[in-house]
Write a structure and sequence with these properties.
Helix content of chain A: 25-40%
Order of helices and strands of chain A: HHHEHEHEEEEEEEHHHEEHEH
Strand content of chain A: 5-15%
Number of strands of chain A: 12
Largest sheet of chain A: 7 strands, mixed
Distance between the termini of chain A: 13 Å
Strand order of the largest sheet of chain A: 1-9-8-7-4-2-3
Largest interface: A-B, 61 and 61 residues
Oligomer: homodimer
Radius of gyration of chain A: 21 Å
């Protein structure tokens, strides 16, 4: 019988299937650790570096460039690094783009996180829920013929990957004449896509690109043309002010931003860009879904097949007792973070960028072993 | 001639006089570094630990307890760990306690940071500036006979230590029948005090207690009795919601919170509490002010003597050329972060909790050498 004591800490960090904060690449952990003592080129601990230093300005500039370059976006997109998570964006977006408008913004309610965005938007203005997965327990996403987008909406808001349910859109939704706003928190920089179709993308770091504490916002310049003038909203909630300050309106989360820079360097360098990253992520997900599908119904996938997420693979075991025994057996082998979100239960294996194929192979091995016992 | 190359990185981290993010204790840096690989008791990297784990719940609980214990506050004070810095509190405070009130809140304008709070408060409601240091360039604080506090103000807001100007209140202001709200960002947990006289204290971490990315809010339970009901304000800006969620409304900055825990453990353990910390901080500041005062006017203190800060010591050299030569000579000896804030210039030596007396002795030695040349 395997025992957790025999699994090294480095291996346990690689076998972290948590929905987030989650696994990070080995090389990023090592560099982050070194930076606590000395950030390369800064001559000081990353925790003691002034956010007004030239060194940190170059970190922000390189990171903005890396994000734009990885997403294939031109210079008319601003790249911001804010605090407050996706939750803060649930409020900042309608504050800037919905308050005072005559027409409702269109929101999709496809799962837990898109649902969290709704009350915050309704506080600021009119909202039309274009489609809701509630009647069937958020086990699938809408088909094109279920969606009638209005041409006069201030914007369309949706979540590209529902972390809790494990549902992912594999296409871009909406109309070209209505700004698309997308919460990509759990699949940001995980695969290539036509990101120039979006007017605003936001993603907190703690899934694919870094530790908790920073949120990336990518925003097309012209989106703010009808937003409240600079100075109307509280400064830290005002995209104008944040853009003007290049994300350093007040002290930013220096360490978290630096770790995101390390992840983007790894993506551009060692991995070779989003096409390569997407291929790796698809291979990991395919392996796991195949194991589920080939289990003769022992493991049951939550998400409808066309909408399965490459990032969060959700499934169930036949009974609660088997569920707990499975989690236990996986833990002994060093695998952690497999319990599904408290709102839906079951198993969730999150396969973010930092997770290696070998970790998924290990999970599949545990699943096979467990079923055969 | 000394050269920066001969100063080790550990020594340079100790000689960091930055206004913030600033110096942290050696032991905290070491433990933070180790936690990037494995957080003790968690069996995982601190960057990959779920904020919903039992381990992290125990971090938050211990830290809440440490903060209350260090400040000598009873259980009717909530302790929150939020994002957005003091800047976010500039808005959250008046949103909760000023909007819609008939009487103005009273604000002191004693320097750069208290000035930043004013427009954010005015956006939400009526503000009366009780006293302003503007006419004399923020070089002193008001005496008691310059302050006439109104009995019917919703609250009094002031900044206990002006980081930029190096001004610090060495007494508690205001009336017992009006809630005192204090931005203690740059002197939080630096010395003992009668903290139960305050209804709300806030402080971002990156001066005395940790890295950038988290802000501590300590709030008396009854303060919210006239605040908007839960659900009226956006969730992340609603103290009710943050209290209910015990600071884990959405993903908190796990790493930054953990480092703050390490600092509070160090304060309670190795240092022995705020009385001992205050004695150490006073000794450091005394040494430096004595050097300034004994320089025959070569070094000129910015702040009026009774209002001098123990945290941020601000002074000037006779000419801009001497200023730059001094900064250069200090840099060669490994001392960094001595340039004053861009808004006032001059020299600022920040002597936060993590700075050792030996570092201030080194600074004083450099000052003596420089003057004698």
């Amino acid at each position: 019988m395997e025992s957790i004591e025999t699994v090294s800490i480095d291996e346990r960090n690689r076998l972290n299937f948590s929905g987030g904060p989650g696994v990070l690449p080995d090389t990023v952990l090592r560099q982050a650790q070194e930076a606590i003592r000395e950030a390369p080129g800064a001559g000081l601990s990353i925790l003691g570096i002034s956010h007004r230093s030239d060194w940190f300005a170059s970190v922000v500039a390189e990171l903005q460039d890396n994000v734009r370059s990885l997403l294939g976006l031109p210079d008319n997109y601003h790249v911001l690094f804010l605090q407050g998570g996706a939750t803060q964006q649930f409020t900042m977006v309608p504050m800037a783009l919905l308050a005072g408008r005559a027409n409702p913004a269109e929101y999709l309610h496809t799962g837990y996180w898109s649902g969290k965005a709704l009350p915050e938007a309704r506080r600021e203005g009119l909202v039309r829920v274009l489609w809701s997965g509630e009647p069937h327990g958020y086990d699938r996403l809408p088909a094109d013929n279920e969606l009638a987008f209005a041409p006069d909406a201030p914007y369309l808001h949706y979540v590209s990957n529902e972390t809790v349910e494990g549902l992912q859109f594999h296409r871009v939704l909406g109309r070209d004449d209505v700004p698309r706003i997308c919460d990509m928190s759990s699949d940001f920089l995980s695969a290539p896509g036509d990101f120039s179709k979006f007017s605003l993308i936001y993603a907190h770091a703690q899934k694919n690109i870094g530790p908790a504490g920073v949120t990336v916002v990518v925003m097309k310049d012209e989106l703010l043309k009808d937003a409240p003038a600079p100075g109307v909203l509280p400064g830290f909630l005002d995209y104008h002010e944040q853009i003007k300050a290049s994300s350093i309106l007040n002290t930013p989360p220096v360490f978290a931003i630096y770790v995101v820079l390390l992840v983007t360097r790894w993506l551009r360098g060692e991995i070779g860009g989003l096409t390569a990253m997407g291929r790796i992520n698809a291979a990991k997900a395919d392996l796991l879904y195949r194991q589920i599908d080939d289990s003769g119904g022992f493991y049951q996938a939550h998400a409808a097949r066309p909408d399965r997420s490459t990032m969060n693979v959700t499934f169930r075991l036949p009974t609660p007792e088997l569920h707990y025994r499975f989690i236990e057996m996986a833990a002994r082998a060093g695998l952690s973070g497999l319990s599904g979100h408290r709102s839906i239960g079951g198993i969730r294996a999150s396969l973010y960028n930092g997770m290696q194929l070998a970790a998924v192979e290990k999970l599949v091995e545990v699943m096979r072993d467990f079923q055969s016992r």
